[in-house]
Amino acid sequence: MEPNPGGQVTATSNLRADSPLFAQWRRWSALPGGRWLFSATLGLRVPYTGTVHPRVLELRPGFARVGMRDRRRVRNHLDSIHAIALANLGELATGLALLAGLPPDARAILTGISVDFLKKARGALIAECAVDPPSTAERRECVCEAVIRDRAGDDVAHATTRWLIGPRDRR
């Protein structure tokens, strides 16, 4: 991964564009209200993730940008966004970036997460992840990092996730 001139991290390999998740994003995001529908459906399919009401802003193989509004339901007693809401957002960004680039015969299972909290999070947040997804379903671990920033562009948290990649079950 390399930083681009705008300071964002971008994946550098030739990435797949045939994952089922990415195909659905590509179809829906082109429609009026499609990004909202994709995000709402994601929240229904993954109920705990849906608790933070994430909005998928950009998705391509190896890259995801996901937003989250500041709402009372995600706040803590310190009047800032709760640590676990931040972890949820970071995990989602890494998972989407990875899954959008996996081949159709692969699956990913989260095996670990760590989050560094850098600053009280308030206001709208954006999580970004860039990763070079594996090109095969061969069993391996993949480590991803999401950077979560506030409206001012300050890093409020870094989420590092470990995903186990392997072949999809043939049921």
In short:
This protein has 171 residues and is of the alpha+beta class.
Write the SSE topology:
Blueprint lengths: L1 E2 L5 E2 L9 H10 L4 H12 L1 H4 L4 E6 L2 E6 L14 H17 L6 E12 L7 E6 L9 E11 L4 E13 L4
Antiparallel strand pairs: 1-2, 3-4, 4-6, 5-8, 6-7, 7-8
Helix pairs in contact: 1-2
Which key features would you list for this structure?
171 residues; alpha+beta; 6-stranded antiparallel sheet; two-stranded antiparallel sheet; globular
Walkthrough of the structure:
The structure is a single chain. By secondary structure, the chain is of the alpha+beta class. Helices cover 25% and strands 34% of the residues. The protein has four helices and eight strands. Strands 3-4-6-7-8-5 form a six-stranded antiparallel β-sheet. A two-stranded antiparallel sheet has the order 1-2. A hairpin with a 2-residue loop joins strand 3 (55-60) and strand 4 (63-68). The longest helix has 17 residues, at 83-99.
Number of helices: 4
The stretches of 5 or more residues where confidence is low (pLDDT under 50) are 1-15
Order of helices and strands: EEHHHEEHEEEE
Our measurement of the CA-to-CA distance between the termini, rounded to an integer number of angstroms, reads: 35 Å
Query: What is the rounded Rg?
Result: 15 Å
Strand order of the largest sheet: 3-4-6-7-8-5
Structural class: alpha+beta
Report the sheet with the most strands, covering strand number, pairing sense and barrel closure: 6 strands, antiparallel
The number of E-state strands comes to: 8
What's the rounded overall pLDDT mean? 88
Fraction in beta strands? 25-35%
Morphology: globular
Helix content: 25-40%
